[in-house]
Amino acid sequence: MILLLSVIIGLSVIVAFPNFSEAQSELKTFVTHSGEVIRTTGEIIDPLYTVSTVEFDPMEYLREFNYGKVSKLADGTTVREYTIIAEDDKVMEVSPGVFYNVWTYNGTVPGPTIRATEGDLLKINFINNGSKEHTIHFHGIHPAEMDGVFEAVGPGGGKFVYEFEAGPVGVHPYHCHVMPLEEHIIHGLYGVFIVDPKEGREPADEMVMVLNGLDTDFDTENNFYAANTIPFYYQHHPIQINTNELIRIYVVNMVEFDPINNFHLHGNLYNYYPTGTDLVPSFYTDMITLSQTERGIMEFVYDYPGKYLFHAHKVEFSEKGWVGIFLVNDNSESNESDMEYGS
Ligand SMILES: [Cu+2]
């Protein structure tokens, strides 16, 4: 009897295992954002695109600002010139073993952080090296023809120069505005545009955080969430900051599909400037809620050294990657900081 039982158990293990692994690699049918029907396990994403891979360092991105090539007009106006190249054939390993077809501005998601001072004249040389039409639509104030909506730039090297005055003061997103819009945004064609006030802001350790979601299986639900594209990155690579030093974060929510996102800071509260347009903070809080493309500036100082989490308080998002750590070093001995701000 016992022998018979173990034979039955043994058999069911043998039978159960193939079933189990079959279930793991079972192909599911998905309709992609472009209407294509593909069958995939969801583990290897979009094998149709394998042209080149993207290298992206979230720690570098965090404090990297692109001020453009600077010149002056006869009347003293500062001119800043930037070049942004769009591509749509790159693959990025967003999480170990998860490959995602990213569409990029200057090769990364997010694209470069464009920075200028209010009143500067901006010239953005846009080149579309992609296989689809793309544009750059800046949030902010500019003439209609510079809005990046009705002037689609053709694939294979199409060009357009966006020219406008930087304003208003604050933090704004820029993104592609070609239809289907959702597809062009969620694949990664977005970045941050910072307009500084003429009088500047108080010196601070400044960083940019783009909150994004990754729908790696094309079912119009995000599989991963992140601050700066790589899930869990700043948890495994904590951001080093100092006590008694002003920290300023330019935060932009680019998550699609989920109507809200949020930002919770541990062991501290921050002054919050919605859109960064006002120089006086609107809130002193440890929690802000952001809808699509909502953004703002957070400012805070840590009194106590140690390890502090920051994350979405929508727990599903933090458990799927939107979580990080500030490693606060004790700076109480020195009043002067030797930290270099920006780049
Ligand atoms: Cu596009």
Write structural notes for this entry.
The protein is mainly beta and 343 residues long. Helices cover 13% and strands 40% of the residues. The chain contains 5 helices and 23 strands. It has helices spanning 2-24, 58-62, 181-186, 233-236, 315-319; strands at residues 28-31, 37-40, 52-53, 69-72, 78-95, 98-105, 114-117, 121-128, 137-138, 158-165, 170-175, 190-196, 205-214, 224-227, 239-242, 247-253, 261-265, 270-274, 283-285, 287-290, 295-300, 306-311, 323-329. The strands form 5 sheets. Strands 3, 4, 5, 6, 8 and 10 form a 6-stranded mixed sheet that branches. Strands 14-13-16-21-18-19 form a 6-stranded mixed sheet, with no helix packed on it. The protein has a 5-stranded mixed sheet with strand order 15-23-22-17-20. Mean pLDDT is 87; it is low at 1-24 and 43-51. Residues 134, 176, 178, 184, 189 line the site of copper (II) ion (CU).
Outline the fold blueprint:
Blueprint lengths: L1 H23 L3 E4 L5 E4 L11 E2 L4 H5 L6 E4 L5 E18 L2 E8 L8 E4 L3 E8 L8 E2 L19 E8 L4 E6 L5 H6 L3 E7 L8 E10 L9 E4 L5 H4 L2 E4 L4 E7 L7 E5 L4 E5 L8 E3 L1 E4 L4 E6 L5 E6 L3 H5 L3 E7 L14
Parallel strand pairs: 3-5, 5-8, 7-12, 13-16, 15-23
Antiparallel strand pairs: 1-2, 4-5, 5-6, 8-10, 9-11, 11-12, 13-14, 16-21, 17-20, 17-22, 18-19, 18-21, 22-23
The structure holds copper (II) ion.
